[in-house]
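Example 4.3 (complexes with small molecules)
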Amino acid sequence: MPGHSYLRLGIHMKPLMVAFDVAGTTVADGGVVIESFSQAFKRTQPELWETKSETLMAYALETMGQSKIAVFTHLIGDVQQAEIANVAFEQAYLEEVESNGVASIPGAEETFEFLKSHAIHIVLTTGFSRPTLDVILKSLNWQSRISLSVTPAEAGRGRPFPDMLVKAASDLLVLDHANTIVVGDTVADIQAGLTFGASRVIGVLSGAHTNEMFIDAHATSVINSVADLPSLI
Ligand SMILES: [Mg+2]
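Answer. The structure with magnesium ion bound is encoded below.
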């Protein structure tokens, strides 16, 4: 049937946009995000931390990739207190960045160069707020290397919802969502990419979640890191 071969050609067409997650995907994490979670609870919710630290950390790890404020709201059950905890989280993360710096995932910049040389848009999406993301981007000098970045608040909702991807595609005039690739280190990234309608939704093993978790989440491929992405395009 001609329709089938056309569809197959469509899937293998050069993508117009690749959307990457930040922490654990393009930026090395090394446990900083999870440590910042525990710092935030210790500083703002000492009683909750005292009795429930294991439950809190298990949930934080499982929901890695989602909007941090949404995770705090779920765990604390109070929007205002969650906002306070989120501020403490971002502060703890920034303290870490200030003392140890930010490192890119090896090969991330080469992958960006590859995409740029093929005129493919590079998008970054995140669970961080804009001020934190900007500190990361500035410290890596990435603002000029990417097409755009989106935070949960700017798009509506964070992952697992596809809002950041929808906003990026709309801003870049990428009308056919199937003509995009989404790459991330968490199940939330995969869920967002599939709902968005990307033809390829790829898990990377350089961050929070495992191969098994990606397969369960129906990732279309799993690679060791973004360094392996050019070989798939
Ligand atoms: Mg991540």
